[in-house]
Amino acid sequence: FFFGMKLSLPILAFATFSARSAFGFGGRSNFTVRRASAFSRNMGLLDSLFGGEKSSYPAPAVMGDESLMSPKAHGTSSVPVKADLRWSCDRETADRICNFNRHYAEHAGYWEQTDFLSEEKGDSEVNFYDSNTGKLLFTAPRGRSWDDFIRESRSHGWPSFRDAEANWEYVRVLPGGEAVSVDGTHLGHNLPDGKGNRYCINLVSVAAKGDE
Question: Does an H or E element contain 60, and which?
């Protein structure tokens, strides 16, 4: 349905992600790593049409490779998501998205339906931890205001982070734009815009209480 429309590259990128997310997790799913891998292959044409198959992204983004998402004891991770997630995030949804999935997402606006906005007031930076391991992945806002962070996240439908807000010790970007943790947690996608890299991240993927 995108054909015949004159869209800028940032809008095309967002349209691509929205097309994937329209079929995102909202109910039960029997996805396995094998099925997710098959879906990943089928997404190749769409990625090619809309420029999703970039082999690298500019620094400070740290690139990773497919070995990070190889099958492990629990999908693409060695462990399931933690039992007590923050902001009333649904654990079953989080486990599917984090560990048995490469392209799907929580539905657009899900993060606003959690307790995130009622608990976080922007008085200080907020840390976002890997829902599987508890490792620190993002801290926001940095280099901008809380209102700017919320406004951008609302505009795109998912928490949206910038380069300065990512912890590159544990965050990686794969060719094609998938954002993952070094431990195999699916986080979301990098959808660059005119301001640079923009990481559109599932809140359920970064909702652990942290191991600090």
Answer: none
